[in-house]
Specification:
heterodimer; A: 110 residues; mainly beta; 6-stranded mixed beta sheet; 5-stranded antiparallel beta sheet; B: 114 residues; 7-stranded mixed beta sheet; 11 strands
Chain lengths: 110, 114
Amino acid sequence: ELKVEQNPLFLSMQEGKNYTIYCNYSTTSDRLYWYRQDPGKSLESLFVLLSNGAVKQEGRLMASLDTKARLSTLHITAAVHDLSATYFCAVVHTGNQFYFGTGTSLTVIP
Amino acid sequence: DAGVTQSPTHLIKTRGQQVTLRCSPKSGHDTVSWYQQALGQGPQFIFQYYEEEERQRGNFPDRFSGHQFPNYSSELNVNALLLGDSALYLCASRTWGMPNYGYTFGSGTRLTVV
């Protein structure tokens, strides 16, 4: 069974700092998605990564995919409070079934 | 353009009861998947429906069943509720022929079993 691990699970960072969230998965996949979830809310799509070496950027967030290493990263640049949320990566396996990571709870401190 | 709509938003049930959750997919979408998200966990895949048939199923017992209607809306039924079924249930939709675009998620139904 495909396993998806994220680290760190919890991240507290100061405004203005940079940090990276890592997503490792155990089985070959060429599609990976990043979602954001605010407390009590649903999942908001952030990035769709469809090939090895794919890099996507939106505002202060940048995501990349290395399918050979089975690794995706979500880099946060100059964090602001509005980025506080839980971030999930999801890997697609057989039949377009999504396997979600454990989530990274990010808190940005003023 | 309405996104994925789920009802009800919150529900409290007693152990042993049965529950039905409902989902209307985003306009233009024909495929619906259901996920269970326990507190502090990532969503877990329950099953997927397309053309009114269950196409894929995750590792959930037969107490969990579903249905898709001709208008693409869907229901999730859970029988003989257990305390462990307490979770946020998310419905997600997409277009079957466009898998790369991923899913659009609804706001979920928070089920509490007491």
